[in-house]
Structure formats: structure tokens, C-alpha cells
Amino acid sequence: MEFRYLPMTEEDKKEMLDVIGAASTEELFSDIPKEVRLTEELKLKKPTSEYELKKELTNMANKNANLKEYTSFLGAGVYDHYIPSVVDHVISRSEFYTAYTPYQPEISQGELQAIFEFQTMISELTGLPVANSSMYDGGTALGEAVNLSAAHTRRKKVLISKTVHPESRAVVETYTRGQGIEIVEIDHKNGVTDIEQLKEQLDDSIASVVVQYPNFFGQIEPLKEIQELLQNQKKTMFIVSSNPLALGYLTPPGEFGADIVVGDTQVFGIPAQFGGPHCGYFSTTEKLMRKVPGRLVGQTTDEDGTRGFVLTLQAREQHIRREKATSNICSNQALNALASSVALSSIGKHGLKKMATLNMQKARYAKKKLEEAGFEIAFTGPFFNEFVLKVSQPVSAINEKLIEKGIIGGYDLGLAYPELSEHMLVAVTEIRTKAEIDTFVKELGDIHG
Amino acid sequence: MAKQDFPLIFERSKEGRTSYSLPEMDVPTVDLDEELDASYIRQTPPELPEVSELDIMRHYTGLSNRNYGVDSGFYPLGSCTMKYNPKINEDVARLDGFTYIHPYQDEKTVQGALEMMFDLQESLKEITGMDAVSLQPAAGAHGEWTALMMIRKYHESRGDYSRTKVIVPDSAHGTNPASAAVAGFDAVTVRTDERGLVDLEHLREVVGEDTAALMLTNPNTLGLFETDILEMAKIVHDAGGKLYYDGANLNAIMGYTRPGDMGFDAVHLNLHKTFTGPHGGGGPGSGPVGVSKELEPFLPKPVLVKKGEEYTFEYDRPNSIGIVKPYYGNFGINLRAYTYIRTMGAEGLKKVSEYAVLNANYMMRKLEKHYDLPYKQHCKHEFVLSGKKQKKLGVRTLDIAKRLLDFGYHPPTIYFPLNVEEALMIEPTETESKETLDGFIDVMIRIAKEAEENPEIVQEAPHETIVKRMDETTAARKPILRYYK
Q1: Considering CB atoms only, which of A43, A136, A349 is closest to B50?
Q2: Is residue A428 scored above 70 in pLDDT?
Q3: Which of A7, A320, A358 is closest, CB to CB, to B22?
């Protein structure tokens, strides 16, 4: 079998072995003890030619119902948005995608500057002055934020609202276990954090309060009230997880006194791709700049005074701190951060509000139509592009019927909230048309007879 | 902005220019501002660029021209396995049926995706010799931490709360001790001996009833195979500890030996290294973990299983460490790795390791006459030179790295591992031709000569790059982390 990624010829091999002074390549592996040497070939599928493999994998892909062919009302943390064509053209440039972390600034100015621009965009969106180069995703970024709050305040208890994405909360629980942090969940009331309960739990043992804005139900959390509560607990940190698209319309959490704002930029230029890779962001205050996990790019000049960019404040990072590290993150999601930067450049200063508004208007239209069709909407507070629909059959059963009509229905809230079985979380983004929304309402109505 | 500076995207911005193409507002609208308390409505728009589509393409094409990837040239960055990134991987990852699927779709509608994941898990089990694999972790460090959390839970499940220490060799990747710390362990260092291998006597000393695990790369970061691996496994296992394999260096041994056969209880793999997921300028990666039967109950949730002809996620896993990442790992990177494994098969993967090791040994023997080689035995997929000979001439390893830039190469990893003075860690990978290796060797020899005859040219390098050495001190002292208009 020929292997197109392996350029060595038999002649090359012979010449090289001569230089090494070995009779065969086998000799180079003689340091592996015989007891652990494989005696048989690995049991893997046979090597496959490019054409055949592409065909096979295309068939495999075609077994999946994809968001291009189906009309989706599914969100719950991962959204189907317009992706400008320029995005894939930029991230397909192999100087970007085949590069490593920009350790050598002289030949990595492209990536470094792209990250610096990303940091600026995130800072603009969240209203906080410092943003890092990106994290794995919104969920793990939240886990890192909570760990940072405990390390910074030297406190071991954190209050997290149940309106935060269930999987993000689960990640926080796992992330904090190594640090012995106690997580207390605050119930939801009318679709938002139960402020009274939060107030009762808040005392001087609390490292941080964590909410999501807009929250998992799409509702807009009362950040102002939480900020006021925290006035009495100055040391307690305020952590907000935010869908950054919503921040095109909503006041950024930084203006409500948030100490850390995290989230996922999947909404900007990154396809759903079955949940990953997406791109976490992490932003914070000047005060916490030297405690930020992950990589930071800073502006500087070279010997000639030309502006340039470098990885900076590396004393925070695992490769320097080793066993004293408070985060072990090494990679970031540079290529996806680049995708989001390109998308944000394309959408631009005024496009962002327009895009956010389109989401809000279309979601409101869907909600109104459903109400007119006799459906009940569970929570009535202000929302972004998602709302909770009460249904009278198991959501999974409804979704099975919808898929036959070419529709991917909303998220089954009963999976994460037992009290919300027969409640569907419906997402409506800017790419849903009026006709698609009308069909969705009609089909839901038909299912309910 | 000085004249020679490359503009920021914000500096290309002009009020009123647009590049977006949003769908029409085709629904009746309501007054949004009435719905919300005014304090929740953003008053100042974020300062995003206002540019045309061509502005965007010129800007980012310009940036890409100021960047260096594997497709640009040789990238022998030790420990990072900068091999060629196959183009079929990129094509496959962009198929609509893989790109545009939502993680919360009904499992029945994503059976193709689950089939790929399951088949990848099976392949990785076979390659590593482990009993179970989870594709959840997003990157190598994330995989390390995930496996350590499993080991922690394993000990605790036996009522053993005394195992607070994780042993790490002094040559280990920085993520090893950091992951141990984040998982709540104390990291203990074990020394390297004169062979460049773990000092067995010292290992015996540090191992004890408080040992949770030993973390090890094999071959180690010096590129040397730990020949005492079975003895080490025995020492750790006899003390009740677990053996953890950092898969960063798996590229050296595929088809020759397997972590599972060496006695490892848990491994993580870097699919963006060995299995050609591109590095993306720093990510996204993917860091699956493989474990033995004994550790399987502790795998992160959900666990993908096959029931009859259907694939399904299991969430009811009472001993699981929980969820380590939302959804199902970095699917897009896992798909690329799968495509690569299917392209190569067992025969190809063994050749990968054969040539990775051949290339490294060839370069090592060619360069040992010109640079100090601290450990003389055959290496595996990478080797570490010391620049101490050149240091005596006033030329530092950093200078050598910068001089390489003038010849169009990405330098090796420098100053790592920490136990070699002025280290230069070279990993050629198997995808490079002999001509490429020879070209690089010639330049390395030339630089060694320059260090003797004309050290300034090395000390002052680079001379040919678009920017010179950066003022990193000021960058850290007075950080500028974003642009302000």
C-alpha cells in the first residue's frame, strides 16, 4: 500500500540507516523490552484510498439529519446562525490552521495580532477591560472562572443559579471538586434566579455568585438586583456567563459590576458540529489580569520600534508555575477564535444590534403565534431568542413527529429539570423565516390535535 | 500606528461601511425597548469594525502572510508533533452532515456521527491497548486532568483517602504537575538519572502509601524510551498507585508497543498531534482518555455505547466523575483523527512511527558532531541537544532559534525539557523528506560555525523577518491587552 503522507523511499532509508550505523529500523526500537513488543499488526480497518474514504464518510454524514436540510428550533446553548462566507475562506488559509501556538513572535505576527483583535472584541462585548485568547468552550470557561474566584477570595463556597446551562453547572461541579469547593444551587422562580433565596444564602463565606444572562430559559436575569445584593458582600465575586450575541442588544455584564464574564462565541461564525469544537471566552477586570487562566497576547514593539504582539504575562501559566498552577490549560481555541473574529468583523458595530434584534423579533413572533394557537408560554419575563413552551405530550414524542415534517424541535427541559417535563425550550434565530415559524406553529398545533 | 505597522482591523474601520448580509425582517415587529427596563438596553454599541468584505479578506490574508504553518515549511518543534495536516480531513470535517448537526438532536437522527465516534473509540482502544476510551476531553491537558480525577475517584471508591500525591519526572511537560494540582493532588518530582531515564532508586524512595499515580511519557521528553517501564509499573502498582500515560509522544511507538501492554492504567492522547488534527494556531485540540477495566466505571459522562445496531449515550453511570465538557468532546477534531486512522490503517500507522524514529535518529547523528548531545543512545521520535558548547561562545539557544528564522525554518522547542541546559528539542516527524531534513541539518551546522566565527550574526538574529525581536519585558510590565480607539 502507498502512503501519500510518507515521503521516504527505500533508497533514502538505506542512506539514513548507514549514517545512523544501524542495520535496520528495527534496531532503533531495540530499547523497547521484548515483553511489551507487539507481535502482531494492530487490528484496525484496512488503509482506505482517498476517493473511497470520502465516499464512505459522505454516506456516514448523510445518515445525520443536518441543520441545512431541516428547520431547527433547537438551541439550549448551541445555535444555528448565519455564518458569513468569508469566515471559512479565512480559517482555511493553512498559515493559520497548520501553525502551532505562536511561540516565535517574529514569524507568528498574523496569529498574535488576530488574537489581540479577538481580545479587543470580547472586551468590547462584555464591558470588561481584559479578555484572554480563548478557552475550550463556555462550560469549561465557567469552571475556570469559579476556580479562580475561590483561589482569589480564599473561600470555598459558590452560589450558582439553576438557570445556568445544566451542562455548564455539571462541568463546574467536576472542575471544582479537586479544589474542595462547595457548590450551592439557587432555585429558579418565574424563569429567573430566585433572588430571595440568593439573598438568604449570601454571606461572607461565598467566593462567587454565578448567573447566566440571558439564562438557560432565554430569560434576562435581573443583574441589577444581584449587583445591589452584592454591594453588601464586596469580596464576593460576580460571575456572569453570557451569550455574546445578546450583548449586541443588552447592557454588558461589566456595567453591572461583573468581575468575570465568560461564555461561548459559537454564535459567531462557528457551526454547531455536534457540540464541538466551539470557543470559550473569558474576560475580567484589570485587578484580576494576572490571575487569568490561559494565554494572553499583548502589544509591544520590536527593536526597530515597529508595533508587534507577543504572548505575555506567562508567569501565570502551567509551563512556568507547574505544580503551583491554578489552571492547567495549555491550548486555546485559536482557530475558532479567529472564525469568531472574522464573523464579528463582518457583522460589525451596527450589524450586531441588527442581528440581535432580528433574533428577538422573530422569537417574539413565534411566541405570539404559539399563544394564538392556544399554547401556554411558561415564563413571561423579558427574553432574548429562546422561550419555554408548555406542551401536553412528552417533548421527545413531539420531536419524533416534527422530524418527519422536516423540523428539529426544541430542547426537552425535562431532561435537566424534572419539574419542567413537557416543557420545550424553543430557539428562534435570525435565519428562521416567517414561513418556517408559521409551519412550526401549525405542525405543533396538529400534533396536539 | 507607525508607518511600517500592519493595521489592526479596527484601524481599517470607517463609519458606515458594512460587510454583513443578514436575512430580512419578515415578521411583524414589536417595540422591544418597551419590554425591558431601560437599564438593560445597551446604550453604546461595542466598537466592532465597520469594514467591507474585501477589507476583511485583505486584512486576514495579510495576517496569514505574517504567519508560519506546517504548510509554509519545516516545523521541528519538539513535543508538538508538527506533521502534515491532510486535506481530506478538512474536506470531511466540512460535510454538512457532520458540520451542521446539533448536540441535542434526537440520537436517532445522528447515528452516522455516533457511528464515527464509536469506531474511533474502538480504534484508539486497539492502538493504545486500553479497555475503554472517552472522547470527551477537549485537549491534552484536559485529558490529563480528566484521567487524574478518575484515579482520584477510584482510590476514594475503595475508601482510600490517603493518596494525595502524584509523581512526575523532572523532565515532564508542565501540564503534568499543573493537572495534578488542579485535580487536588500534590506533585512530587522524581529525578532523571545519567541515562536520561527515570531514576529507579529515587522512584522507590518517593513511592509510598500516599502515591495516587505516576505520570509518565514514554518515550520521555528527552525522546528516550523508558526501558525499565515494567519495573516502574511494578514499583508503582505494588505501592497501590496507578500508572498514567501522557500520550504526547505516542507518535514514536504505534504498532510497536502499547501503553496498555506496558502496564499503564490510564492514557490521554493528543489527536491534534499524532493523529493530524491541525494545531490551528494553538487549538482546538482533542485529548481523549483511555483506561483499564478497573477505571472504566469512573469515565466521564456520557459514555457512548452500541446496543444492537444502535448507538446511544449512557448517562446513568453512578461512579462517573461527572461531566468534564458540555456535549461530546471536540467532535470536529475527532472526525479528522478518524479520517487519518482510516487512511493509514495498521500498516500505515506502524510506518509512521518507523519513519518518525528514523528521521529523528538520522538528524541526531548528523548534528551530534556540532552540538552537545547529552544522551547518546538511539532516540525515538525526537531528541534533545544542548547548546552549552555555543553558550561558551556567547551564543544562547534563543539566538540559535532566532537565526533559524532567517533561513525560513520554525525553530525547535527551546529550554525544554528543564533538565537539559540550553535545550534544543527537535522532532522532525515522519512526513518530512530526506531533502528537507538535510536542508535543516546544513543550516544547523552553518549556525554552529557562525557561533564560532561570527557570533554577532547569530546573537543579533533574526535579520530577515518582518519584525525583529520583541520587547517582551515591557509587554509584561505594562500590559496592553486590547486596542482602544
Answers
A1: A349
A2: yes
A3: A358
Number of residues that make up chain B: 485
Question: Facing residues of A304 across strands?
Answer: none
Ordered DSSP codes for B163-201: --EEEEETTS-THHHHHHHHTTPEEEEE-B-TTSSB-HH
Query: How is residue B87 written as a grid cell?
Result: 486535506
Could you report the per-residue pLDDT of A267-317, keeping only the tens digit for each?
999 999 999 999 999 999 999 999 999 999 999 999 999 999 999 998 877
Select from A120, A304, A329 the Cβ nearest to the Cβ of B141: A329
Q: What angle, 0 to 180 degrees and rounded to 10, lies between the N-to-C axes of helices B140-157 and B175-182?
A: 40
Q: Helix, strand, coil proportions of chain B in percent (round to 5)?
A: 40, 10, 50
Average pLDDT, chain A: 97
> pLDDT by residue (tens digit) across A206-234?
999 999 999 999 999 999 999 999 999 99
User: At CB < 8 A and 24+ separation, what contacts does B157-160 make?
Assistant: B157/B297, B157/B298, B157/B319, B160/B240
d(CA A212, CA A142): 10
Do B44 and B94 touch, CB atoms closer than 8 A? no
Q: How many angstroms separate the CA atoms of A72 and B274, rounded?
A: 36
Rounded to the nearest angstrom, the minimum Cα separation between B392 and chain A is: 24
Strand partners, A250: B41
> Coil, helix or strand for B41?
strand
Which amino acid appears at position B5 of this protein?
A: D
CA B367 centroid distance within chain: 26
Give contacts of B 298-337 with A, CB under 8 A.
300-301, 321-333
Model confidence pLDDT, tens digit, residues A381-399: 999 999 999 999 999 999 9
pLDDT digits (tens, 9 = 90+) for B422-477: 999 999 999 999 999 999 999 999 999 999 999 999 999 999 999 999 999 999 99
- Asked if A99 and B69 touch (Cβ cutoff 8 Å), the reply is yes
Instruction: Take residue B36 and report the three cell numbers written for it.
Output: 425591558
* Calpha distance A242→A263 (Å, rounded): 5
Kindly determine whether residue A220 and residue B40, on different chains, have CB atoms separated by under 8 Å: yes
State residue B3's pLDDT score: 67
Residue A39 backbone phi and psi in degrees, to 5: -105, -15
- Is-above-0.95 flag for pTM? yes
Torsional class of A263: left (φ above 0), alpha (ψ -120 to 50), beta (otherwise)? left
Residues 6+ apart with CB under 8 A from B122: B133
What ipTM was assigned to the predicted interfaces of this complex?
0.97
Per the CB < 8 Å rule, is A106 touching B69? Answer: no
Taking a C-beta distance cutoff of 8 angstroms, is the pair B331, A273 a contact? yes
Element (H, E) at A345: helix A334-372
pLDDT band at A73 (very low <50, low <70, confident <90, very high): very high
- Beta strand A130-131 with A71-72: parallel, antiparallel or unpaired? unpaired
Give me the residues of chain B with pLDDT under 50, please.
none
Q: Quote helix, strand, coil % in chain A, to nearest 5.
A: 45, 15, 40
